[in-house]
Amino acid sequence: MIDMIRLEHNLHALGYEVHCFDTGSEAADYLDSVIDQQSVGFAGSVTLDQIGIYDRLIKHNKVYWHHRAGKGMSIDELRKKASTADIYLSSVNAVSQNGEIVNIDGTCNRVASIFYGHKKVYLVIGMNKIEADYEHALYRARNIAAPKNAKRLGVDTPCAIKADRCYDCKSPQRICRGLAVLWEKPMSGEYEIILVKEDLGY
């Protein structure tokens, strides 16, 4: 059973700032109010797309997101700009109730930016991403989030056909290239976890 209060307590104990919201819309209102006149990098994230935060932040910030190509900038250039932005926004593949945060990545720009390089990182997490322990969080990242993302991206991998589980494939288009786990808040930079009591993303 998901215990948001316990998770919030554990994340605080691990050094994160934490805010909880009932809806993605409320979370977007909050982020829009606290991120202003900054350079902002976006990770590839269905969650961020669902809450509509890009369209709001771009009105009063410099925002870089490779899912929304900028004028005269390639996807690689947008990723590089995002990696050096003041603020970085992402979601996660899974989080345990103990506070371990798990991500699997293909290009690995997302996990790199979550780990280092920004003044502040915001991680927006829907309640569907919360698991009882690390083992279940890792299982979720590998067998639920990754296959669904593979299907969404239309890659040629076994998991993309049914989006049912990881097949540990050797496909050139495999999106599971790197595993990253945050055991605690990294030493450098500020980190804020945005917990949302709705299902968001994969």
Description:
The structure is a single chain. The chain contains eight helices and ten strands. Strands 1-10-7-4-2-3 form a six-stranded parallel beta sheet. A four-stranded mixed beta sheet has the order 8-5-6-9, with helices on both faces. The two termini are about 20 Å apart. By secondary structure, it is an alpha/beta fold.
Distance between the termini: 19 Å
Report the major sheet: 6 strands, parallel
Global Rg: 16 Å
Sheet with the most strands: spatial strand order: 1-10-7-4-2-3
Please give the number of β-strands.
10
Structural class label: alpha/beta
Give the overall pLDDT as a whole number: 95
Strand content: 15-25%
Number of helices: 8
Overall 3D form:
globular
**Uncertain residue ranges:** none
Fraction of helical residues: 25-40%
Order of helices and strands: HEHEHHEHEEEHEEHHEE
Describe what is shown at a glance.
This protein has 202 residues and is α/β, with parallel strands linked by helices. The chain has eight helices and ten strands. Strand 5 and strand 6 form a beta hairpin.
